[in-house]
Amino acid sequence: MSRGDAVVCEGASMNGHGQQPLRVLMVVHSRQLGGAERHALALLLALRRRGCDVSLAAPAQGWLAQAAGAAGIRCHAVGLHGKFDALSAWRLSRLMRAQRPDVVHAHLTRSTHYADWGRRWSGLACVLVATAHATHAQRHFERADRVIAVSAAVAGALRARGLGPERIDTVLHGMADPGEGPDGAAAPTAPGAAVRLGMLARFIPDKGHDTALRVLAEVRARTATPVQLHLAGDAQTPWGQQMKQLAHRLGVEDALVWHGQTDRPMEFLRSLDVVLVPSRREALGLTAVEALAVGRPVLASNLGGLPEVVTDGEVGRLLPVDDVSAWAQALLSLIDDPQRRLAWGRAARTRFKRQFDLERMVEQTLAVYRRAQRARGVDGRT
């Protein structure tokens, strides 16, 4: 191992047929916690359960490396700093020569850039698959043998930027079914109790916390029903601090509950009556998928991949971006109609089980690996 690589523990070693396992090296440069990182972790664990020999190259102090290591995934510390860190690219190439992966799977633009350089410098014939997690991603994906788009919206953005459609596969995020929980799907709020709205999102402008706060202020001015807004995420960011100041100016501080960053997102979402996703940019909307999984209705911005998750009028509403009046009216109708919340919550569970199954995602990802291997003329073990 290269200096700086820290083996945490072993991944899978053999598949169920006694054959050599498919070796998959995942590369993720991000240090933060977000949808792409949670997606990568779910895929790592699912591939390991399928018998693949999985490992991760990522910054040692990042959320993903910590979570994957705790789950027993073999992890290698590679900094992947900035647009091009020659030392990290060299370490990645050494790691590839040592591990000899069949598939290098990079997530996000910068990771794809480094994975491509690592593969070139290693001299290996392994395939490179990249997952695009954003509709605004522009560079480096053309270097991959195949590109996975996490939504049709992302696939369309990649085509619009010149990537050939024959190299793009759309694979929606899948996750293990968490079950309905002890309270079922969106049980009606007890008389006199506050209706609990909530957001689970990083504190950055794209997530639209300011819209949620303004909607809360308007809703409270138009109903006597108590309403709370629960916010999960690390608010110790510049945007988080701005949101605290905005809450003070709007006079809604008493209706806010700040939960901080949570490692139990499903429990948080289950505690809500309605989940808000007022994003200004969203590739798919993992929080929306998770809300469906626990049977909670979703109000979401009508953009990006969110319409692929939220069917308007069936599991929630798709609303114009930043249109405070439209959002407030939609919320008021739900606050006054607990039976609709219950019905939409049940429909959400049904849609989740039909569209966002983890095993479907794994099967489709393995199929992408096979197509990439065939295109490159490499014998596959999938």
From TrEMBL:
Q: Does Nucleotide-binding show up as a keyword for this record?
A: no
User: Could you tell me the EC number(s) of this protein?
Assistant: 2.4.1.-
Q: Which domain of life is it from?
A: Bacteria
Q: Which residues form the Glycosyltransferase subfamily 4-like N-terminal domain?
A: 34-174
Keyword set, alphabetical order: Glycosyltransferase, Transferase
Boundaries of each Glycosyl transferase family domain copy?
197-350
A molecular-function term among this protein's GO annotations? glycosyltransferase activity
* InterPro entries xrefs: Glyco_trans_1 (IPR001296), Glyco_trans_4-like_N (IPR028098)
Q: Which Gene3D superfamilies match?
A: Glycogen Phosphorylase B
Q: Which CDD domains match?
A: GT4_PimA-like
| Class of this enzyme | transferase
Protein name in the entry: N-acetyl-alpha-D-glucosaminyl L-malate synthase
